[in-house]
Amino acid sequence: MLAAVNERPVAANLFRTAPELRLIAGRSRKSGQLVFPAPGDSELFESVDLPSRGLLWSYTVQRFAPKSPPYRSDEPFTPFAVGYIELSGALIVESRLVDVPFDQLRVGLPMELTTFTLRTDDAGRVLMFAFRPHSGTPS
Amino acid sequence: MTDVYIVGIGIHPFGRTEGLSGLEQGAFAVRAALADVGLDWNQMQFAFGGSDAAGKADTLVAQLGLTTLPFINVLNGCATGGAALFGGYSAIKSGEFDLGVAMGFDKHPRGAFDPNPVDWGLPAWYGEAGLMITTQFFAMKLRRYMDTFGISALTLARVAEKAFHNGVHAPHAWRRSPVAVDAILNSQLVNDPLTKFMFCSPAEGGVALILASERKARELGRAQVRLRAVAVRSRPPGSFEVFAPTIEIERGPAPTVIASRAAFEMAGLGPKDIDVAQLQDTDSGAEIMHMAENGFCADGEQERWLAEGRTRLDGALPINTDGGCLACGEPIGASGLRQVYENVIQLRGTGGARQVTRPVRTAYSHVYGAPGVSAAVVLVC
Prior knowledge:
Strand content of chain B: 15-25%
CATH topology of chain B: Peroxisomal Thiolase, Chain A, domain 1
Number of domains of chain A: 1
Strand order of the largest sheet of chain B: 3-2-4-7-1-8-12-11-10
Shape of chain B: globular
Mean pLDDT of chain A: 93
Largest sheet of chain A: 5 strands, mixed, barrel
Number of strands of chain A: 10
Low-confidence stretches of chain A: none
Order of helices and strands of chain B: EHEHEHEHHHHEEEHEEHEHHHHEE
Structural class of chain B: alpha/beta
Number of domains of chain B: 1
CATH class of chain B: Alpha Beta
Oligomer: heterodimer
CATH architecture of chain B: 3-Layer(aba) Sandwich
Order of helices and strands of chain A: HEEEEEEEEEE
Largest sheet of chain B: 9 strands, mixed
Structural class of chain A: mainly beta
Strand content of chain A: over 45%
Shape of chain A: globular
CATH superfamily of chain B: Thiolase/Chalcone synthase
Helix content of chain B: 25-40%
């Protein structure tokens, strides 16, 4: 997997790709509350994986090019889908949605975690997490 | 504790004014409010003011006069005007002051806002990935609401059609031409299900209100419009807000619900007692959802309310009688005070072609902004 050498997550401690792709949340050692993205203070928060499958809670399509900054992309703008995915027993997480025609988006659609290339720079591809439809049952 | 009255109102028309800074539009509004009641700046004992993007309100003393009054800056997103009013209301109610100003102004560049994630306590990737966009939040809160409570796109269009109809008759409005329901439905999608005509735009403008104690208001012969309640609340656990990387599965009420209940309790009134309302309408859907969050109808009843025209000028509860943010645009620092300005016009009965048909004795206004703050104001006469 030489290609993987030139890939990196957009931020540290956001998601891991091995042994399986998972979003990383923090669980308050005091209250048990889950926080994503995980806060940096490991004395207050322990690192936990979020479920990788869930149901689409809401969605929209970004039809106009966002202002840069803060948006960063090296591709010409094309509309993209955004949504919230309810990860049962954990949190409702906001995410880019990929591999789905806009007209097939609906509340309740089963989704699973994936990644896509947010941009490419001299060091390689910068990966961002996303969700895409899947046909199985939520796990 | 004294009652608080609004004795003077002033506005710089909303929209785009080339050659006039946001601060200058704020100063214009203060001078207009002083002229409305026949007072001078040097009689003002305090000022609370703010803008989101057009400079520091307290520097206005250079334009208005170096009278050494305390001028407190406030900054609370779209609720900045509500926060300025809360400051002025509390200052007079405490008995410490008799007479002062609550004001706000703004001047934004064209297009959607471009917030910096770091300012909001968010990681850079949130902005880089195209998630730091206010309009997405309004669209997704609405999508969920429409699915849950059976709200149609036609109802969203009816809200915008009403706004542009009312804006025609408001001299301070930006968009003053009617737009038909079909044109609204068929205009370009911005963030599904919301089209171009269903969203307000960042704009420019300034508003100032002169506040007085009961004693001072009577002395001025202006004890007509009483500020019965001003409540500002930040978000409770489990609410769904602008710029939220996650939402709790166990849902809580919106900050608007909390602020609204507090305002009605302070006023000793309920939603059914209100004759006219100005509600935060960043988009058509926001007005729909805020009708329920402020207690005016049950979730889902908006479909029938809009079909029956209940929120039009001749309806049972006219909403956004000057066209709201949809027709006026949204200069963040001034927007919440524009609502109060419009309510004073309605209570005075000077709305002309946009004056509501039924007598107006009570008026309600509501702003909502990032990162989850709401302000509710009740006026009576």
